[in-house]
Structures are given as structure tokens and as C-alpha cells.
Amino acid sequence: MPDKIELPVPVLKSPHWRVRFIPDVYQKELVPSLRECLLLIEQTKLSIRGWDYPHLSRRESERQIGSSWIASWSDYAGHNEYWRFYQSSQFIHLFSIHEDANPEWKEQLRSTAKAHLTWGNDKGRDWSQVPGFIHIPNFLYTVTEVFEFAARLCEKGVYRRQLSISIGLSKINGFILAHNWDRAWMNRYEATEVNLTNEWRVTPEELLSRNKEHALTAVLWFFERFGWLNPSKEILTRDQDNFINRRF
Amino acid sequence: MGNLRDGGVILIGVAEGEKSWEIGGMSDEHLDTYDVDVVNDQVNAYVSPHANITLAILLAQSKKFLAIEVREFTNSPLVCKKNGPTETRLAAGAVYVRPPGRACNTRVTTAEQMHDLLELAAEKRARRIIEVGTRVGLVPSQSDAQRFDDELEGL
After folding, report:
1. Which candidate in A1, A3, A26 is best for mutational testing of the B interface (most B CBs within 10 A)?
2. Where exactly are the structural domains of chain B?
3. Where does A12-136 show beta strands of DSSP type E?
4. Are β-strands B63-70 and B79-80 bridged in parallel, bridged antiparallel, or unpaired?
């Protein structure tokens, strides 16, 4: 077994997400064939915004078939990602923090944060030294996509019992939560850890009936680790509903 | 001892003196009077559901000793099921425990002792349920988690 797999895209070299679905029981060929693995992804991926979750490249050169898994990757306009779906139904997805990997977006967030956070300790702050930003709506949308994707796999009967959904952010020390210009924003919430990871165990029934609530729980867990202890659930739920209904 | 976490061992052939232990050992005749089946029968005539006892002869300093190992109860705490001879003070329905650090058995008379015993029984029962659940696949076993990790090949 190799110590470390050489990925076709450099997603691990910069700040990134790590999402993993782990079923409770290992069954090597739960999904009988690799063709069915591919079909499952095609049928369950989310296409709510311009970039699918997970993104299944149309190019054969950005797909790979292993002994028990299928993979796809991309490196396009800040969308740097790699995922694998195994016949055991394990799913792993590594993808860049888009607002960090996309230079224009990053500078836009830097400029917005600079304009909003001009009080107290942030007065006179050298914003060029802030390593990166987490865009709050994008974070909410991404976690919502993760849980919805898991729910859709449940619908297909892939996950029949308890499922662990692990979500992690890597290399985010010093990253600051940021919002759009049109949203009032006066507090600085900053990550003090290099990596943040947590795992949520859910049943298919819970995922199918309340996946948005579970996603919100996960979002709040991360926001707390940035020091944001009292976000408005009402507003986040509304933003989440708007996203699901494509009103964003 | 059967109601004690990890059970205990009774060592025959030593005696506690004023300041030191007397390691006298046992004579062969005395040893012959101990038979595992007889001991089990005699003890379990008073114990419900069942005390798990094993005997072993130990050799040390050219002397023989008998070790009686009493294992911790399996599912339910051990209860005295019939009255014993007057001098034993064994009473039907009573529960006996061995207080930590003291070489004596006492009848459970305090709420604290009973709570400790019930908690031990509950923990053992919970562990048993998890063991069975893991075996039949209701609870993810370590090996399953490991298999999923291995499958990633370090990814």
C-alpha cells in the first residue's frame, strides 16, 4: 500500500475542505459494479449553482477508475478538487476553499472585510496580512450541499443504516469569516486552529427528513470554532432555504 | 468478591501476623480436602445466579499454597439464596460485598454500596449489549472503521 497517493491536482497544497461519508458497516462491493458507482454520482450530484457537488468532469482525462472506486477531478478557475466514490459506498472529497483559491474573490472579500471591520482592535489593521477568508454564504451552501448529496445517496438505498459525515477544513489558521457588502458585519471571527474537523452520525431517516437542520448544526459547529458564538439561526435558515430554492 | 470489580483471590497458607505475614504453606493432607467441584457446589448452594470459582495450587519457597480465584459476576450481582448456619450469618436475599481495602465481607446496608453495585451491573450489561451488537453488525466495529481507512490508501 502506498504511503501517500499522488493526486492529479494540487488540492492538498492550499487551504481545502475534506469531506468523507463513512457507512457503519464495511461491505467491499455494496455497490455491485463501478458502472453503478458512476451512475449513482450522475444521478445524485447537486446542480443548484454553477458548479456541481460533487463535480463530475466530462473529460475522460479527468476521470479515473480504480480496482474498487471511481474518481474525478478538476482544476478550473479556483475549483481545485478531487473525489473518489468506492464500491463500499465510502465517499471522499477534497476541494479547495474556493474563495481562497479564486484570487479575485479573495481580494473582494479582503476589501469588504476591511470596509466592515473598522472598529476596536481592527482599527488600523494590516488587512494584507490576513491569510484568507471564509465566505459565510458559500460555507453555508457548501455544507448544505454535502448533507443533501448524502441524503440523495440514501434515497438511492446506498446508505441504509447509520452514516458518519466527516467535514474538515485544513490550513485555515488566521482565516476570517466574511460576508457580502450588503450584509451588516461588524465583528471579526477568526480561526485560531490550522485544521478544524468534526464528524456527524446520522441515520438515513434523519438525513431524508431533516438534512438541512443537520447541515445547519454542522455550520454552527464551525462558526463557533471561529469564535462566532451567537449567529442567528433564523437568518441562516432563511439563507439556506433561499439557496435550496435557487433564490440566491 | 464476586460482587467486586475484577473479583479477587483468596490465598490459603498464609496468615496475617502482628507486623508481618506468616508464610506457612499448606500440608498435602490439607490440600487434598479442597476439590474444585466440592468447593463450587458448597459455595453455589448459597449463591444466585452463580459464583465463578477456580482453584490453583501455587509453589513458593518449597511450600504449597492454594489460590481460590473468584471472578466478578457476569450479568447480575450475586445474591445469597438461602440462610446459612447461624455462625455464617448468611441470610437469604441478602447481597454481600467486599469493601475496598478491607479483608472482610459485609452485607449491603447502605445506599452508596447498592448504587455502586447496580452501576457496575449496568456497565457490564451495557458492554455486553455493545459486544453483541458489534458481533451481529448493529454497532460499527473497529475493524470496519479500519477497513474504510485502509481503503483510502492514505488519501
Report:
1. A26
2. 1-109, 111-155
3. 16-23, 63-65, 69-76, 79-86, 91-96, 133-135
4. unpaired
- Judged by CB atoms closer than 8 Å, whether chains meet at A86 and B154 is answered as no
Sort out which chain B residues have CB atoms less than 8 A from A69's CB and list them: 151
* Gap from A93 CA to chain B (nearest CA, Å): 10
Which pLDDT score, from 0 to 100, does residue A1 have?
45
In this predicted structure, which of A33-47, A71-85, A180-194 has the lowest mean pLDDT? A180-194
The answer to whether B150 contacts A88, with C-beta atoms less than 8 Å apart, is: no
| Residue extents of the structural domains in chain A | 13-244
pLDDT tens-digit series, residues A22-45: 999 999 999 999 999 999 999 999
Residue A113 grid cell: 472585510
CB contact under 8 A, A92 and B147: no
Contact A25 B137 (CB under 8 A): yes
The x, y and z cell numbers of residue A224, run together, are 463557533
Q: How much is the pTM? A: 0.67
What is d(CA A212, CA A236) in angstroms, rounded to the nearest whole number? 11
Tell me how far apart the alpha carbons of residues A13 and B54 are, in angstroms, rounded to a whole number. Answer: 61
Identify the residue among B130, B141, B142, B153 best suited for mutation to test binding to A, counting A beta carbons within 10 A and taking the highest: B153
Q: Among candidates A54, A210, A89, which has minimal Cα distance to A159?
A: A89
Strand A69-76 relative to strand A79-86, pairing: antiparallel
Q: Cell numbers for A142, please give them.
A: 457548501
Tens of pLDDT, residue by residue over A96-127, are 999 999 999 999 999 999 888 877 777 778 89
Grid cell locating B9:
483471590
Please report residues of B whose CB lies closer than 8 A to that of A4: 154
Q: Which residue of B has its CA nearest to A90?
A: B148
Specify whether the backbone of B101 is left (phi greater than 0), alpha (psi in -120 to 50) or beta: left
SS (H, E, C) chain B: CCCCCCCEEEEECEEECCCCEEECCECHHHHHCCCHHHHHHHHHCCEECCCCEEEEEEEECCEEEEEEEECCCCCCCCEECCCCCHHHCCCCCCCEECCCCCCCCEECCCHHHHHHHHHHHHHHHHHHHHHHHHHCCCCCCHHHHHHHHHHCCCC
Q: Measured between alpha carbons, how far is A178 from A113 in angstroms, rounded to an integer? A: 6
